[in-house]
Design brief:
Strands 1, 3, 18, 19, 22, 29, 31 and 41 form an eight-stranded antiparallel sheet that branches. A seven-stranded antiparallel sheet has the order 42-43-48-45-46-47-44, with no helix packed on it. A five-stranded antiparallel sheet has the order 2-32-15-16-30, with no helix packed on it. It contains nine helices and 48 strands. By secondary structure, it is mainly beta.
């Protein structure tokens, strides 16, 4: 504004007196328009959280809303032998030793020492002619010239050569099968005395599209797309964690889902998916997994030379869509009808899974029909044999060691030490892994899943890790050994149910207990613990009356799936999310409170006998609530009118007698009453004894 007195009668300046000011007003209006949009429009920022650690830059501090997690299943045709922890499963022309200091999975790798020729380690696996496959081995050069993976008998099926000695690197080969089985070989070339390591060997059947795409990927990219798993493995217990520090020592906000998510292992089709509705997570379930042990209702079905077929009832299964892994982790071939041992089929028409069991594994001689106990014992990990003919160690490995129905019948453990029993086995044993079945459902289902936490982003950079294999709040009993230990030894109550990769949190009575010290070990066999981590606590800090539980990561790996979702990108969306969150939390809390109220309500007490000819018609009991009120319910008949049908004990009797109307019946409703005496006697007065219905409550004072 111009001041005529101070500045005189200057000419009117359009720029300074009008345009500049209008520009300021326009700018302010523009800002206000932006603010208006932020409060009037729902805006979300989509985000995909991929496997591993990543940095997510968020434009707002907000909760992550999950749209979905999609399942995946990998089937390693080598079973578990690719973890390179059992030397006897591989063929080699040189010395193989286990190396616990160098590994990429499990507890060890193989270390091979070259002789006068290149050193090789080989293993066979089942294939289907014409199908496409990819094979990967993690290898590390000691001082050889090169290492590579190859497939015997297929020209050109040789992987990339690895020369690195500083770290493991993948050697990868693609191939189309030309036979019903093939042999994978890892070869190290160099001089006598040179060494190299191998680990995490896997062979997967893949689709034609993936086979073509793999040709464009680097070995590292192929290894990441098809990571190592033991045998059959889905996406198991996925999680997403935002770490507050780069050392990943504190869980800030975590979303964990305790469930298995499967899909077709070759095409990835018909995948299980996770979705969220009103704060609860659900799974759209299209596959089912089942541990095939001796507790299931197995039946004998038919016999053939060298094998016998047993069946298990399976409902809602899709024919020919089963995958079965044997106790050694190797995939059993699908065939219908079966024509050899180690084959499986799933029949929707018969609602049954069929398995052909080799005589060499079961001990059931060709002329012998196994009993139900025999079948159960086999699936608990035992082999039948004649103790008059074989010692246990010989019976365990000899293909001719059988039980024909005569002699002295014993069972020997199929794997591990040759422990034996003459009593029918009723359970499995440490070291034995039962058969595993995965099959596609004929009719998909939706089921709720266990979850914990809520992932939230802060404005700016967020370090987020996505992985699998989290176990939530597994109950454990710490063991005293000078101090209290969790996972201190595999043979004690402190052992966790799965091999431990990392312990994240320990809870006492459901609250975080930070007093425990987490201890890491690189060689679990020497520490007698199940995995690589254990926890210990000073004895003075242990509460023997408390309940302890552990959240941890499993050592055994599974495929990792992306978390797909979004977060609020402006104020209106933040407010909407907040309102929804409060509403959902209130609803869930009310359900919990109601369930707690039901749980806390005292149980009904049923009298052991009734008096004077009265008989219960299925409803009878009394209980005390709120410490001052007694409730009684009864539906009785046939007794003597005017005589008590029961007597309440001390603590359940009124201070003074009371009379209450009740219903009794002949063909119509007939008036009756009960007298509740101070001595606890309950007396039916008047009415009919055809049927008397009572439901009442009274106070004790």
């Amino acid at each position: 504004m111009k001041d005529p007195v101070a500045e005189g009668n200057d000419f009117f300046d359009v720029k300074t007196m009008m345009n500049d000011n209008w520009e300021k007003i326009d700018g302010f209006a523009g800002v206000m328009d932006g603010v208006k949009e932020r409060f009037d429009t729902i805006t979300r920022q989509e985000v995909t959280l991929n496997a591993g650690v990543q940095i997510i830059t968020a434009i707002k501090s907000a909760l992550f809303s999950l749209d979905g997690v999609t399942g995946r299943m990998l089937v390693n045709l080598l079973g578990r032998m690719g973890n390179c922890e059992s030397v006897g499963l591989w063929s080699s022309n040189t010395t193989i030793a286990t190396d616990t200091a160098n590994k990429t999975s499990g507890t060890s790798s193989f270390k091979l020492t070259l002789g006068s020729v290149p050193a090789t380690a080989s293993a066979s696996f089942l294939t289907m002619p014409g199908k496409k496959y990819v094979a990967v081995a993690d290898v590390k050069n000691g001082n050889t010239s090169k290492i590579a993976i190859s497939i015997n008998g297929i020209a050109g099926a040789v992987g990339n050569e690895v020369t690195s000695a500083s770290a493991f690197a993948p050697s990868v080969v693609r191939f189309a099968a030309t036979d019903f089985f093939h042999i994978v070989t890892i070869t190290g070339t160099g001089s006598a005395g040179n060494t190299f390591n191998m680990d995490s060997v896997r062979v997967y059947e893949i689709s034609d599209a993936d086979y073509a795409a793999a040709a464009t990927l680097t070995p590292a990219q192929v290894a990441a797309k098809w990571p190592y798993v033991d045998s059959i493995m889905p996406v198991r217990n996925p999680y997403a964690i935002r770490w507050t520090d780069t050392n990943k020592t504190d869980i800030a906000s975590m979303l964990a889902l305790q469930t298995d998510l499967y899909a077709d292992p070759v095409t990835g089709e018909n995948a299980d998916t996770v979705f969220e509705r009103e704060g609860q997570y659900f799974k759209s379930k299209k596959w089912n997994g089942l541990t095939l042990d001796g507790s299931l209702p197995w039946v004998y079905y038919e016999t053939a030379t060298g094998y016998k077929v047993v069946r298990l009832p399976i409902t809602n299964g899709l024919s020919d869509k089963e995958r079965v892994a044997k106790y050694d982790g190797k995939l059993i071939q699908h065939a219908f009808p079966v024509s050899a041992s180690d084959q499986s089929y799933l029949s929707a028409a018969s609602n049954a899974l069929g398995l052909s069991i080799p005589v060499a594994d079961s001990g059931w001689a060709d002329g012998y029909t196994p009993t139900t106990d025999d079948i159960k014992a086999y699936f608990y990990g035992y082999k039948a044999y004649d103790a008059n003919t074989f010692f246990p160690a010989d019976a365990q490995v000899a293909t001719t060691a059988t039980w024909s129905g005569t002699g002295t019948k014993y069972w020997v453990q199929r794997v591990g030490a040759a422990n034996y029993t003459q009593t029918v086995p009723q359970a499995s044993y440490a070291g034995y892994t039962p058969y595993q079945l995965v099959y596609q459902l004929a009719t998909p289902a939706v089921e709720p899943i266990i979850s914990e936490g809520q992932l939230a982003f802060v404005e700016g950079d967020n370090q987020v890790e996505v992985g699998t294999g989290i176990l939530l709040r597994e109950v454990v009993k710490p063991q005293l050994n000078g101090q209290y230990f969790i996972n201190g030894a595999t043979t004690t109550s402190s052992a966790l149910k799965n091999r431990v990769g990392d312990i994240l949190r320990i809870y006492r009575n459901s609250k975080d207990d930070k007093a425990w010290e987490i201890i890491a070990h690189s060689v679990p066999a020497n520490q007698n613990l199940y995995g690589f981590k254990q926890a210990r606590l000073d004895a003075s800090l242990y509460d023997p009356s408390a309940s302890y539980s552990v959240t941890y990561l499993m050592l055994d790996k599974s495929p990792v799936a992306a978390f797909v979702g979004s977060y609020a990108a402006n104020e209106k969306t933040l407010l909407a999310d907040l309102v929804d969150s409060v509403q959902q939390t209130s609803a869930r809390l009310s359900v919990v409170e109601n369930k707690k109220a039901e749980k806390d309500a005292p149980s009904w007490i049923t009298p052991t006998t009734l008096l004077n000819g009265w008989v219960s018609m299925g409803v009878l009991g009394y209980r005390k609530i709120n410490n001052n009120t007694v409730q009684v319910k009864a539906r009785i008949k046939s007794g003597v009118i005017g005589q008590p049908f029961m007597v309440l004990p001390e603590g359940y009797r009124p201070l003074v007698g009371q009379v209450r109307p009740v219903h009794s019946y002949t063909t119509t409703d007939v008036f009756a009453a009960v007298l509740i005496n101070a001595d606890g006697k309950f007396i039916v007065s008047g009415g009919s004894n055809n049927e008397v219905n009572i439901y009442l409550e009274f106070t004790l004072d």
